[in-house]
Amino acid sequence: AQSVTQPDIHITVSEGASLELRCNYSYGATPYLFWYVQSPGQGLQLLLKYFSGDTLVQGIKGFEAEFKRSQSSFNLRKPSVHWSDAAEYFCAVGAQGGGADGLTFGKGTHLIIQP
Amino acid sequence: GAGVSQSPSNKVTEKGKDVELRCDPISGHTALYWYRQSLGQGLEFLIYFQGNSAPDKSGLPSDRFSAERTGGSVSTLTIQRTQQEDSAVYLCASSLHRGMNQPQHFGDGTRLSIL
Questions:
Q1: In 3D, which of A79, A82, A89, A77 has the Cα closest to residue A114?
Q2: Each residue's pLDDT tens digit, B73-110
Q3: Number of A:B CB contacts under 8 A?
C-alpha cells in the first residue's frame, strides 16, 4: 500500500522568502503525485500534479515541485511567498487498479507567513 | 454551479441519530469520491463511484456508513447511529473520469459534529 510522509507539521516563513515543503512517498510503481492547498473552512485546491515526463512541474500561484525517484520525494517550492499563501498543504499519491482509486494523503504542513 | 457542491456545510446532531450528507459533483464528471478529514486520522479515502457503481466499499469505517449515487450525479453518504468518533469534515470530490491521471476537484466539505 502507498503512503505519504510530510515531515514538517508547521513551517514559518517570512513574506518574500523562499519556501520548500517536503514530501516523501512510498509506492511500488510509478506514482501519481499531487500537491493540494486548503484554506480554513474550505476544500482542497489542486496546486500541481506529476504523472510522467519532465520531473519539474509547474503549478498555479507560482508553485513548482520536483519529482526525485531516487529519493522518493516530491517537494513543493515557491521562490517568494505572499501572505495569502498561509494555509495547509497536502501532498498526495494516487494508485490505480483494484478499486483503490482514492488518493492517499500526507498529514499536511501548516504554513505560517510572518510579515 | 461550477464546482463540487456539498450540503449541509455544517451539521450538529446527537449521538445515535442518523445523518445524510449530500454531494453534487461537477456536471459531466463520472467519478465521485468521498473522504473524511479528522484531527486524529488526517485525510482518509472512504469510497468512490464510477457512474452509479461503487466497486470497493472496504474504505468505509464501519457498517454504519453507506453511500449511494443515483443518476450518475448526486451522491449521499449516510451514517447511521452516529458516534462521537464520527465527528469530522466529510469531503467530496469529482473527476471527469476514473483514474489517477484525472485530477480530483473537491467541495468545501460538510463539518459534522456529534454531541
A1: A82
A2: 999 999 999 999 999 999 999 999 887 778 899 999 99
A3: 62
